[in-house]
Amino acid sequence: MRTARLPLLLLALSACNRDFALPGGGEPACGNTTLDPGEGCEDGNLSINDACPSGPQGTCQEAFCGDGFAWVDGFGAAEECDDGNDLPGDGCFQCQVEPDWVCGYQEPMSGCWCRAGYQDHDRDGSCLPGCDNIALPPLEPHEVCDDSSGQVARACALDAEVEPLDGLCELVACDPACGVHQDCDGSQCVCRPSWTGTDCGTCRVMVDPAATCTGCDGESWAGALPSIDAGIALAAKRAAGYGQHCEVWVRAGHYWVYDDHPTDTIALRPWVALYGGFAGTEQTRAERDWRTNRTILDGHAGPDSAEQVWHVVTATSNSTLDGFVVTGGRAEGRFGDYEIVDDDGGGFLAVGAQNVRVANTAFVSNSARTEGGGARIHESSVVFEDCSFVANETWNDVQWNRCAALMSNWSATELRRTVVAGNEAAEQTLCFANAASHDSNLVANNLPTAYGGILWNRGNLSRVYGSVLADHEPGSDLWCNTAAGVIEVEASLFEGFGCGGQGTCALGAGVVDAAPGFVTVPGTASGAWDEVSWDPQVVETTLTDADAGWTAGEHAGRFVQADTATVHQFPILANSATTLTVLGDLRPFVLAGASYQLFDYRLDATSAALDIGMDLTAYGVSTDLLGAARNVCQSGTAPDCWDAGAYERP
Questions:
Q1: How far is the CA of 64 from the CAs of 30, 51, 88, 278, in angstroms?
Q2: What is the SS3 assignment for 44?
Q3: Which of 178, 210, 260, 574 falls between 20 and 30 A from 68, CA-CA?
Q4: Do strands 272-278 and 320-322 pair parallel, antiparallel, or not at all (unpaired)?
């Protein structure tokens, strides 16, 4: 597939911004506050829309009309548009929008559309003839009505003599029963093909890798676009035009991200939400099943390729990623300069990105040379909900090698109902050089051995509420790297608690730090593998024990220590009588003949964690890790019956 290109760039970070160490040199970087050779200006930020365009897509040359960057000052738009030329008739002339055109100037410039005599009635990028809805009679020659409302009024009456179609007044009766972006279907109003939401106010673009239509417009599954990049580009254009979110719906499949260079990436765009998990028939997002309809973003060039991208997905402000498996990223861009992050964040990278939401997404079998095998967050605000980080690793043998699952630096990062298991690094699983919160999560059996095997904090507050942190390699579970660091723990479960470093681990109410009382796995809970097989097309490992005798489906949601000689555990997706299915490539962790053990971190009937938890609704959490209702009373009295840990006993 053709992918967006992440520019080769040097991100200018201060000594304090790069964690763990002071800079030992550096390279010129546009946006680093230093006027380097070849730069005409330097304002020390990452904006391309001010007097000195800088950052990943900037030039650090003084802004001028025709440079391709729309200059927005602090008091409004100094340039209405900038399309990189000085040609009239294309919608943007001398950096002003020409009459009867619409231009978007989000980052990057999104273009202009609609010439004189045409209008973008629904602000969906479709310029249609004539029906302006703002002029009183007499009507235009092609109109049968014009109600001067300024909105496209849809007919929705059983006795309507004309069919509503595309807002073209010649086929629309002026009946206000249906709203903007709606059509009449019998006796009810329905969203037009390119719109979705309860009020039909969110635009929608469909993507299907098997699309074969000519002139695809993305408005339906039959007209779906063939690539994710094309879908994102069209959605960004529409979002820029009408100032609202636009969604991209991606049909299930395996999408290979590497095209011709490791800087290829799935680049999210402002006000665009990327959703996976569709079968290709849904008309509402609620119909999708992202677990069954697996939608894979793979950093490889193909099924047998050794070529991999540095970052599978890169985020920008006001963007969403929901319903994907992100795998195959290998961040090994550049190493040795503290100002560079191309060796961090194999699965996901967010730099200077605010208001980012990631949900229902698994980061599996990604790696990084330095930090954040699964994800790297820097100077951003990101929420991960109902996600998992499994079998990610960092692998540098030269310098630092840490933060196997996630590194968050100077960012507001939240993890909600997220599983972190089976990741590997020399030091740390989750790293936070900033304020962070972790609510109703399970962090189990990763392999860092020192300085915060579970969680590393640098200088701020990290909050761990309603979580399970279990069975890690011996070493301090939590680590505060500075005296100012505080890790606050409440309503959470440990299997042996340890805290190290210079700061404070504050244990509040509802903490069980030994023998929490987990469910005993029934039947065959241990044995040895006869076979280990890997299917890269669906990103699954199948583990076979011919003598197991399991009941089909009984172990879904449990965990397997695939090789008892190591600490790694992995969440089980499904099982048959003789097999377990696990998401991710387990071949680096287990071979045929290895002994295994099954685990369950749900609470048994005698657990000390029952009814001693805390209400997490104020932190955006109202269900447990499996989506079950919280506040189920065992012996207590409502509304104070939340169980400690990530699971609620039914």
A1: 17, 8, 17, 44
A2: coil
A3: 260
A4: parallel
Q: Quick: pLDDT tens for 15-64.
A: 223 233 323 444 457 877 788 887 888 887 777 777 788 776 678 888 88
Q: Encoding tokens for residue 611?
A: 């009814």
| Strand pairing report for 272-278 and 246-251 | parallel
Secondary structure of residue 198 in the 3-state scheme = coil
The model's pTM:
0.74
What CA–CA distances, in Å, run from 74 to 51, 394, 643?
A: 11, 42, 50
Give the contacts of 86 (CB within 8 A, at least 6 positions apart).
65, 66, 93, 94
Cα–Cα distance for residue pair 15/369, rounded to 1 Å: 20
Tokens of 44: 């020390």
Cα atoms in the Cβ-side hemisphere of radius 13 Å centred on 149: 14
For 257-260, the CB contacts below 8 A with 24+ separation are: 257/1, 257/3, 257/297, 257/298, 257/299, 257/300, 257/309, 257/312, 257/328, 258/3, 258/299, 258/300, 258/301, 258/305, 258/307, 258/308, 258/309, 259/1, 259/2, 259/3, 259/301
Question: Residue 237's closest CA among 266, 200, 270, 191?
Answer: 270
Which of 247, 150, 249 has the alpha carbon at shortest distance from 201? 247
Specify burial of residue 40 (Cβ count, 10 A radius: 0-12, 13-18, 19+). exposed
User: What is the four-CA torsion angle of 262, 108, 276, 581, rounded to 10 degrees?
Assistant: 20
Residue with tokens 């047998």: 304
273 contacts 230 by C-beta, under 8 angstroms: no
Q: Is 370 left (phi over 0), alpha (psi -120 to 50) or beta?
A: alpha
Amino acid residing at 215? G
Task: Quote the radius of gyration of the chain (alpha carbons, Å).
Answer: 27
How do residues 490-500 score in pLDDT, each as one tens digit? 999 987 667 77
**Edge-to-edge strand ranges of the sheet holding 246-251:** 195-196, 202-207, 246-251, 272-278, 320-322, 356-359, 381-385, 412-416, 436-439, 461-465, 486-490, 504-507
Mean pLDDT calculated for residue range 565-594: 94
SS3 state of residue 523: coil
Q: What is the largest CA-CA distance in the chain?
A: 85
DSSP conformation letters of 413-456:
EEEES-EEES-B-SB-SEEEES-EEEES-EEE--B--SS-SSEE
65 CA to centre of own chain: 35
The answer for residues whose C-beta is within 8 angstroms of residue 338's C-beta and 6 or more apart is 13, 15, 18, 21, 22, 23, 24, 25, 26
Bridging pattern class, strands 356-359 and 381-385: parallel
- When pLDDT is cut at 50, 70 and 90, the band that residue 162 belongs to is very low
Distance from the first to the final alpha carbon of the chain: 45
Local structure of 241: helix, strand or coil:
helix
Which residues are CB-neighbours of 191 under 8 A, at least 6 positions away?
181, 182, 183, 197, 200
Alpha carbons 411 and 372: distance in angstroms, whole number:
14
Angle at 566 between CA 565 and CA 571, to 5 degrees: 120
CB 369 within 8 A of CB 335: yes
Structure tokens at 351: 């730099």
Q: Rounded to the nearest 10 degrees, how much is the dihedral formed by the CA atoms of 438, 311, 396, 451?
A: -10
Closest CA to 356 of 321, 392, 391, 407: 321
- Are the C-beta atoms of 231 and 219 separated by less than 8 Å? no
Average pLDDT rounded to a whole number, residues 422-435: 77
